Amino acid sequence: MRIIINTSSMIPIYEQIADCVKKLIVSGELQNGDALPSVRQLAQELRISALTVKKAYDRLEEEGFAETIHGKGTQVSCGNLEMLREQRAREAEDALSRAVERAKAGGLTAEEIRELFELIMEERSE
User: Fold this and answer.
1) Do residues 3 and 17 make contact, with C-beta atoms less than 8 angstroms apart?
2) Which of 18, 23, 31, 124 has the most CB atoms less than 10 A away?
């Protein structure tokens, strides 16, 4: 499992960790029941405080994306996967709506916007 944090970001590190784990769940890279690294192991790997990792894991548990089993550690729990996908879809819809409005305000036609979208999608799928 690869987690990348940005120490210069305004987003707290524990939120970055939790968001990264959620993305791995949505992408299918992490499956229900997969073990997450131990708090100490991930803290050492990322060179951050174990308390920060613990806070991220606690947040994942609160949101239903992980569960900690005494003696076994923390593992993925995909109970809220559909809710997360719906949330991501709403966020994407909002971002696309804003982009379309900006493009229209800039004088682009609906056809030009569609062509631009198709071009971007082609670039991302390669």
Assistant:
1) yes
2) 18
Whether residue 51 is found in the same domain as residue 102: no
Tokens representing residue 75 in the block? 């593992």
- First-to-last alpha carbon distance for the chain, in angstroms, is 23
CA 47 to chain centre: 21
The string of pLDDT tens digits covering residues 18-70 is 999 988 988 889 988 899 999 999 999 999 999 999 999 999 999 888 999 88
Clarify whether residues 64 and 85 are in a common domain.
no
Q: Rounded to the nearest 5°, which phi and psi values hold at 72?
A: -110, -20
Token pair belonging to 19: 């968001």
In a domain, 27, yes or no: yes
Helix spans in 63-105 (H) = 81-105
Structural domains in the chain (count): 2
